[in-house]
Specification:
33% of the residues lie in helices and 24% in strands. Strands 4-7-8-9-10-11 form a 6-stranded mixed sheet, with helices on both faces.
Length: 214
């Protein structure tokens, strides 16, 4: 395992996520996977439904700054609304299909969180968020993130947004609907799942553009 982690750390400089296919004998339950991630805090790790470990590359400057803008807008609304809680990209969720995912932004209704034990609350949450948002970064393959968005919906998410800042597009995912692509929207509403929330995309586009100093 030590040799495997050393290889992973070296490969994490690659432009795409590193996928590790563990031997069956390495199979980890949810608690073991949680401890594995805690022991390797320098790595952002997800797990597929098939048990593959997915090592995600750190975000670049543009994506990181964009994520901060998204988190700011979302947290302002979440505090005012009060009907649920928001989570950033460091939050882990174990989906019903066994995958462990960390959306860039997510939100869960209070009544669902209240069913969790204190132990659940301090681990990766054993549920799929009601809302998920993924910001496509240069290290992401669009097809991979599209498959992840479909997985969220299949596991119970009621709304998902995949934001492509380069093409200025938003892919909207809802249960029992084909994904819808919006081109260069200035704003997008989260109703009825996110009551009264409107994401200011014009502010996001501006935030992620590098402007030279004058």
């Amino acid at each position: 395992m030590a040799e495997l982690l050393e290889s992973i750390q070296q490969d994490c400089c690659d432009p795409f996520p590193v996928v590790v296919h563990p031997e069956p004998s390495w199979g980890m339950d949810d608690e073991q996977f949680y401890k594995f991630c805690r022991r390797n805090k320098d790595l952002r790790i997800e797990r597929s439904a098939d048990g593959d470990l997915i090592i995600l590359a750190p975000a670049g400057g543009s994506s990181s700054h964009g994520n901060l803008e998204l988190a700011y807008q979302f947290q302002v609304w979440s505090r005012q609304d009060g009907s649920g809680k928001g989570f950033d990209s460091s939050g882990g969720f174990v989906l019903p299909n066994g995958a462990a995912r960390s959306p860039d932004i997510s939100w869960v209704r209070n009544e669902r969180l209240e069913t969790l034990s204190q132990r659940d609350w301090t681990r990766f949450l054993p549920l799929c968020p009601d809302f998920v948002l993924e910001l496509l970064s240069p290290s992401d393959r669009l097809r991979d993130v599209q498959e992840k968005m479909a997985e969220y919906i299949e596991n119970g998410a009621q709304l998902g947004w995949l934001i492509d800042s380069v093409k200025k597009q938003v892919h909207v995912y809802r249960p029992e609907h084909a994904p819808k692509v919006l081109s260069n929207p200035k704003k997008i509403s989260g109703d009825p799942v996110l009551r009264g929330f409107t994401l200011d995309l014009a502010a996001l586009w501006e935030t992620m553009e590098r402007k030279p100093r004058r």
